[in-house]
Amino acid sequence: MFKKSLVIVMLLVLTLTACAPARSEKQVIPESMPQEMFAGAPQSTYADSESARTFQQETGNMMGVENPVERMVIRNANLSIVVKSPAEAMDQIISMAEGMGGFVVTSTLYQRRLANGNLVLEGNVTIRVPALKLNEALDQIKGLVDNPQTDILTENISGQDVTAEYTDLKSRLRNLEDAAEQLRKIMETATKTEDVLQVLNELRSVTEQIEVLKGQIKYYEESAAMSAISVNLQAQETVAPISVGGWKPEGVARDAIQALIDAYQTIASGVIWAVLFCLPIALPVGLVIFFIVRGFLRWRKRRKSAIPAVAEKSE
């Protein structure tokens, strides 16, 4: 009887593992979004709101639907803007995120050298804010620019509906938890050591699968509750038009002047390389070749002068 019960539970576990949809195998949390990024974030209320569930149940009953499906959508945004001071703009974005109950994922400031030789600051910052405040956060970030018509370079908002994947994970989790409970009951009735060890190994495998599913479920819940916003901050100097004597050429004239400047820079760079890199190498090599050629010419000259002298002696 014991072995029959154990076989039934093991078949149930194998069925859950083998019959899982192919998409579930790809639901591992990406390395680019580790669980540590959610440290300090508020707990997700997406699936834990009693009022929301009560409202949905009442609405579903009124419409003749027993269990309405709660949609789970992960919304993220990417922005590239031009600001006067990327460092100050980054501080304001971080303060805004923390004020909304969000947090900073990454922030980077770096220097960039322009064609004219000037160094300017640029930066990248990624924050997470409550999904319900995503639009408000985007409006505040876009408010940092002087001219929204020209200083907002790119803006992209993406949404991913993960309702099916989330529902599938929850269903698999319930089934595995039931299987684990059955294994615990079987282990309580086992009398032989080998039977206990067999059930214990199977229970350990099921427990590991349960922990993986819980991690994936937590990732979906927190990703849906907290939207990610990635912002690229560029200084105004990087997009400022070229100024020649107070005149700001546009279109083809500007491109022609920039191409001319680039050509002169290329020539100047070649001369610098020739003087600083090639000359120290070419000078000693040239001296060696010069002395070799000079010695050869002297030897040849002496040989030519020696031939008539030998001919005179022979006569």
Overall description:
Helices cover 57% and strands 17% of the residues. It has 315 residues and is α+β, with helices and mostly antiparallel strands. It has two domains: 240 residues, no CATH class; 72 residues, no CATH class. Strands 2-3-5-1-4 form a five-stranded mixed sheet. Helix 1 packs antiparallel against helix 6, helix 1 runs parallel beside helix 7 and helix 6 runs antiparallel to helix 7. The termini are far apart.
List the helices and strands and how they pair.
Elements: H1 2-18, H2 50-62, E1 73-83, H3 86-99, E2 103-113, E3 119-130, H4 134-142, H5 148-151, E4 152-161, H6 163-189, H7 193-225, E5 226-235, H8 251-314
Parallel strand pairs: 1-5
Antiparallel strand pairs: 1-4, 2-3, 3-5
Helix pairs in contact: 1-6, 1-7, 6-7
Strand order of the largest sheet: 2-3-5-1-4
Low-confidence stretches: 18-66
Largest β-sheet summary: 5 strands, mixed
How far is it from the N-terminal to the C-terminal residue, by CA? 129 Å
H/E series:
HHEHEEHHEHHEH
How much helical structure, as a percent, in the residues? 55-70%
> How many domains in all?
2
What integer value in Å does the Rg equal? 37 Å
**Mass-distribution shape:** flat
Secondary structural class: alpha+beta
Give the amount of beta strand, in percent: 15-25%
Number of strands: 5
Quote the average pLDDT: 76
Count of separate DSSP helical elements? 8
Question: What would you say about this model in short?
Answer:
The protein has 315 residues and is an alpha+beta fold. The chain has helices spanning 2-18, 50-62, 86-99, 134-142, 148-151, 163-189, 193-225, 251-314; strands at 73-83, 103-113, 119-130, 152-161, 226-235.
